[in-house]
Amino acid sequence: MALFFATAVAEIVGCFLPYLWLRKDGSIWLLLPAALSLVLFVWLLSLHPAASGRVYAAYGGVYVVSALLWLRFVDGVKLSPLDWLGAGVTLVGMAIIVSAWKAA
Question: Is the pTM of this model over 0.70?
Fold first, then answer.
């Protein structure tokens, strides 16, 4: 699970920094750590158990939760109960997918 969250954070940072440059008048130098973060994301993704649809689907569930946590703690947006419910449903879906790949 930690690998999934680390992968998601690397992807989010790699996308967030160019956003700051493009939309929030950030320095063009933000593109350098963004590129490094996306390289880290690809490397972390390669460490997952298999390059399969199940792994990517499970990762997607963790990505959704990570993105909501980023929204809350980095962007400072208060999440609604429905946001939290959606995050929970996503994690349940991820658990179902992971249990299916362990059974296969």
Answer: yes
